[in-house]
Amino acid sequence: MLTRRALIVRGGAAGAGVVFLWPGRAEAAAGPVLATTKSIPLGGGRIIKGKYVITQPKKGVYRCFSAKCTHQGCAVASVSRGTINCPCHGSKFSASTGAVVQGPAKRPLARKKIKVAKGKISLA
Questions:
Q1: Of 17, 88, 90, 124, which sees the most CB atoms within 10 A?
Q2: Which InterPro entries does the record associate with it (predicted)?
């Protein structure tokens, strides 16, 4: 007769096997699709849902940052001429690295991990 504990342990191991063997698991692990690669202009970028900024500083290179300015938390509003721009107090951040280019912000934008596959950009 199986004890309740043994049943739980065996059930958990079997369930773990299903998770690791399930086809397409790697695709399911990626977060929601934020944008397509075609929608991010070379040398520019796009603000997504007011939460993220995706840029393409070089052809085929995509970066993602928080859209929240590190100065006082305003949402950045645009990407142009290699910078991500905050309209509240004029802070500018590098579209390539998120580093501060012009204050008053002192900290870079938080970088987000992304996955680029089959023309789609999603959170990693």
A1: 88
A2: Rieske_2Fe-2S, Rieske_2Fe-2S_sf, Rieske_Fe-S_prot, Rieske_Fe-S_prot_C, TAT_signal
